[in-house]
Design a protein that fits this description.
This protein has three helices and no strands. It is mainly α. The chain has a domain of 49 residues. Pfam families: MT0933_antitox (PF14013).
């Protein structure tokens, strides 16, 4: 079992808090770097949220269609 799988298990049921933590960490990095790398920070936040099982979508955005089945 990978470390990331363990983290997912620990965060299960606490997705909203994890999302807030990712956002807060990104804001901290943006502050320390004076937003010099804000594009890269935003991309990292999105990818981390995807890995944690979140889509990163806002509640008012339409849902994404599921990916096609693998064959």
């Amino acid at each position: 079992m990978s470390v990331f799988d363990k983290l997912k298990g620990m965060l299960k049921g606490h997705e909203e808090q994890a999302s807030k933590g990712v956002d807060k960490a990104g804001d901290y990095v943006d502050g320390k770097t004076q937003s010099k790398y804000s594009g890269q920070v935003d991309t990292a936040q999105e990818k981390l949220k995807e890995q944690l099982g979140q889509t990163g979508q806002r509640p008012d955005s339409p849902p994404q269609p599921p990916p096609p089945p693998q064959q």
